[in-house]
Amino acid sequence: MSTATKTSILGKLASDGIFETVDGMTHEETIRLTNEVCAHNYHPIDVVVTRGQGPFVWDKNGKKYYDMVGCYSALAHGHLNEDLIAVANKQMERVTLTSRAVYTAEMAVFLAGLCEYSDSEMALPMNSGTEAVETAIKLARKWGYRVKGVADDKAEIITAEGNFHGRSISIISFSSDPQYREDFGPFPPGFVSVPFGDAGAVERAITPNTAAVLLEPIEAEGGIIVPPDGFLAEVRRICTRHNVLLIWDEVQTGFCRTGRRFAWQWEDAKPDLMTLGKALGGGLMPVSAVVGTRAVLGLLRPGDHGSTFGGNPLASVIGVAAIVDLYQGKLDELADANGRFFKGLLHPLIGPIVKDVRGKGLLIGVELHESAGTGRDFIPRLLEEGVISKDTHHQTLRFAPPLDITREQIEDAAGRIVRALAR
Ligand code: PLP
């Protein structure tokens, strides 16, 4: 973009106003400008969203859609949740950013509420899911050296093939997706990968240097892969037996998404550390955290780790309001019941086009036969029917609506999905 165009948009924004400028842009202009000025690290679908409410969004032409991507499961509370907006507005009249150089009661109650809800002893606030995972890796290594007695710089962490934990250099170093790694090396050592869902492989990979096992309880971005029954509990037993920390990455599966507060609760496989994010931001802003035992989180000393924005008062009240809403509304039970209902409506699709319908709670994947095309091929048909979905790992379409979506809305949405996929 030329300097002249840049100047002109700033001049227009200054004279016409931000919202007037935004509202004045057409569907085509929005896509053209985005592609000109935004690096192409995503391949968005052909929708320009202007407004959201509950499970719905509207586009530039006023067309209404069910938002089944739900910001990759971050929209547990739906768009513009009234309670959360009220809390955020109130806090925005008090104080928003302080830094951890001072104390705030907002952060204290946030982390106390988070610990109670997740049955944890301590917490550390961050912003994105990636940062939470990075933080957990640092904590696990520190525990390995200080407590387990692993030799300096030799700590290993066991991960799974097909994982997705974020996009930082250390996290992509143990990704099994070649595109995530290509051109981004060199990578830090210390990560070992085993097949997902194979507890025996986890145990065989353990050495005296193993500090932790880091896994998603369901591989969400990997294609909504649910491990065999008993896997979570077996990994817990293995970690305990070998004095290895268990870290569940619940950034996507946490906060009722799978029909339990946290997915490890399906098998009572309580971790030593858990990474959280997405829904913790209540659909308003990035809020993440690591929670776990005092024996691990208590190892950090001032200066070991930090974040300018982590635990700021605005994020803290939004985070605690997000938890209170899930707790009061018993959203775990609701997501379990509604997830079963939704999957039941999609199951009859299994046939020549659809290979599998799977998932837990309201994290549902519909896998297509390769002969039928890729997930992306079906997105335009779903859009025609008023449903926004996204392919995850080529063949699987993701359906992850807000957790308080009603039965009637599920029935309506499922009818649309069936019409789009049966054709
Ligand atoms: N961990 C899991 C399990 C995820 O699904 C994601 C994002 O999809 C992340 C970590 C990274 O979170 P963020 O994109 O907020 O950095």
Any overview of this molecule?
With 423 residues, the chain is an alpha/beta fold. Helices cover 40% and strands 16% of the residues. The protein contains 16 helices and 15 strands. The protein has helices at 3-16, 18-24, 27-37, 70-73, 82-91, 105-118, 129-148, 169-172, 178-181, 199-205, 231-241, 294-297, 313-328, 331-346, 375-384, 407-422; strands at residues 49-53, 56-59, 64-67, 122-126, 156-160, 191-194, 210-215, 245-249, 273-276, 288-292, 354-360, 363-368, 387-388, 390-392, 396-399. The strands form 3 sheets. Strands 4-10-9-8-7-5-6 form a 7-stranded mixed beta sheet, sandwiched between helices. Strand 11 and strand 12 (363-368) form a beta hairpin. Helix 5 runs antiparallel to helix 13 (313-328). It is globular.
Summarize this structure as a short list of keywords or feature phrases.
single chain; about 425 residues; alpha/beta; 7-stranded mixed sheet; 4-stranded mixed sheet; 16 helices; about 40% helix; binds pyridoxal-5'-phosphate
Secondary structural class: alpha/beta
Query: What ligands can be seen in this structure?
Result: pyridoxal-5'-phosphate
**Rg, please?**
22 Å
Mean model confidence by pLDDT: 96
Please outline what is shown here.
This protein is an alpha/beta fold. It has 16 helices and 15 strands.
